[in-house]
Design a protein that fits this description.
The protein is α/β, with parallel strands linked by helices. The protein folds into three domains: about 90 residues, 3-Layer(aba) Sandwich (Rossmann fold); about 210 residues, Mur-like, catalytic domain (UDP-N-acetylmuramoyl-L-alanine:D-glutamate ligase), CATH 3.40.1190.10; about 130 residues, Alpha-Beta Complex (Protein-Tyrosine Phosphatase, Chain A). One of its GO terms (cellular component) is cytoplasm.
Length: about 450
């Protein structure tokens, strides 16, 4: 009987454990922290052995294969020791993919991957495909492979999940864009992070497709210097293509193998340049899978936006409050600042992942009237923007940040939570941060 050790008893870990047990593996789940009650119940119900609060190394080193949760860095000594002993350490995505014959659509990128994943899933559901959505979103991929019977999966894939693949190959891969993020996990080398994103295409064949942003310098440079076997389908706001998606006369034009789809940008449910790109990427997936133009058009017109991504909360005394808690990097905050047309009171800060804020200087100079810091260490934000914004203040929680923003804003302004940082210093995760912000706004 093959032995699998699962490191981490969260969503991906417990899903992997259930799938492994179903496929006759001997399973052991080990979590250095405490396992959440809801996951513990699932493990007990399925008679899966687990430990919490420690890693018992002699149990771990007996494994034939180890599945590592994406939150655990490759650099930790335990992972390095496993690799030295020749024990493969893989991601949930790699493990689960071997147990399904479903077509896989993989979507990665520094920003826009959640929206593109949800939009693609929405289109394919509307086209009546039997489709599941997983990866970095919703129920774990492994759990769905164990318990559902989908023909297709739309997978949102983080760089950490892609780091743990060996043979995983999506039939359609999408790279929405690449900008510096998570550099603390990549030796502060941008090129390592770029290579990680491109692992999505490393096992693709000439039968497969890679959809990508042709306006993105990092993507274009990688494709100039490296090879993929996949058929390339670019999208762009600036160039046009024989095969790909582009803009002409304020319309999206999508040309795939034998088919052209056009749609006015004005009728898209999601507005803003970055969302036009997300719509282009999703449209190309849909057309490559034969979705009818009418279905595609309807889907792009009636899609609801993603929670915590430029989500309008309330208008109070003529001030619009927007929750963009999902903006955990500088590029995402850039999109948010760029999309707001009124003076901004900007709530920013959190756990810095090696951020460089200089790209934001022109936008901040032009649009931001006040900065409310929401993090434990705000020194880099104050250093970067202190001279160009008249009002900058530190706060220690969502409620305080919202109250201060309320005081300094006036009719016609926008209060924008777009942190450009991770949330783990003051919150459980970006969802918790977004919900606390929304609750505080509602209590004003």
């Amino acid at each position: 009987m093959k032995k699998i050790v699962v490191l981490g008893g969260g969503e991906s870990g417990v899903g992997t454990a259930i799938l492994a047990k179903k496929n006759k593996y001997e399973v052991f789940v080990s979590d250095k922290g405490m396992i959440a009650e809801k996951y513990k119940k699932v493990l007990l119900h399925n008679d899966i052995f687990f430990e919490e609060g420690k890693h018992t190394e002699n149990k771990l080193f007996r494994a034939d294969v180890v599945m590592k949760s994406p939150g655990i860095p490759d650099k930790v000594p335990l992972v390095q020791d496993l690799l030295k002993k020749g024990i493969p350490v893989i991601s949930e995505i790699e493990f689960a993919a071997t147990f399904t014959k479903a077509m896989l659509i993989g979507i990665t990128g520094s920003n826009g991957k959640t929206t593109t994943t949800m939009l693609t899933n929405h289109i394919l559901k509307k086209a009546e495909f039997n489709v599941g959505m997983a990866g970095n979103i919703g129920d774990s991929f492994a759990l769905q492979v164990a318990t559902e019977n989908y023909d297709k999966y739309v997978l949102e894939l983080s760089s950490f999940q892609l780091d743990g693949i060996m043979d995983f190959a999506p039939h359609i891969a999408v790279i929405t864009n690449i900008s510096p993020d998570h550099l603390d996990r990549y030796d502060y080398k941008y090129e390592n992070y770029i290579d990680s994103k491109f692992r999505i295409t490393k096992n693709q064949t000439a039968e497969d497709y890679l959809i990508y942003d042709a306006d993105d310098e990092a993507i274009e440079n990688w494709l100039k210097n490296n090879k993929t076997k996949a058929q390339l389908f670019p999208f762009s706001l600036e160039k046009s293509f024989e095969k790909g998606a582009y803009i002409k006369d304020n319309k999206i034009i999508v040309n795939t193998n034998s088919n052209t789809f056009t749609m006015s940008i004005a009728t898209l449910a999601l507005q803003g340049k970055h969302n036009t790109k997300n719509a282009m990427a999703s449209s190309m997936v849909a057309k490559l899978l034969g979705v009818r133009n009418n279905t595609l058009r309807e889907s792009l017109e009636d899609f609801d936006s993603v929670e915590h991504r430029l989500e309008p909360v309330l208008k109070i005394n003529g001030v619009q409050y927007i929750n963009d808690s999902k903006a955990t990097n500088v590029n995402a905050a850039y999109y948010a600042l760029d999309s707001v047309r009124t003076p901004i009171v900007w709530i920013v800060g959190g756990t810095d992942k090696g951020n460089d804020y200089t790209d934001l200087l022109p936008l901040v100079r032009e649009k931001v009237k006040a900065i409310v810091c929401l993090g434990i260490d705000n020194s880099k934000i104050i250093e970067t923007f202190g001279n160009i914004v008249d009002f900058i203040i530190e706060t220690a929680g969502a409620e305080e940040a919202v109250k201060v923003a309320y005081k300094v804003s006036e009719k016609g302004d926008t209060v924008l939570l777009s942190p450009a940082c991770a949330s783990f210093d003051l919150f459980e995760n970006y969802e918790d941060r977004g919900r606390q912000f929304k609750d505080a706004v509602r209590q004003l």
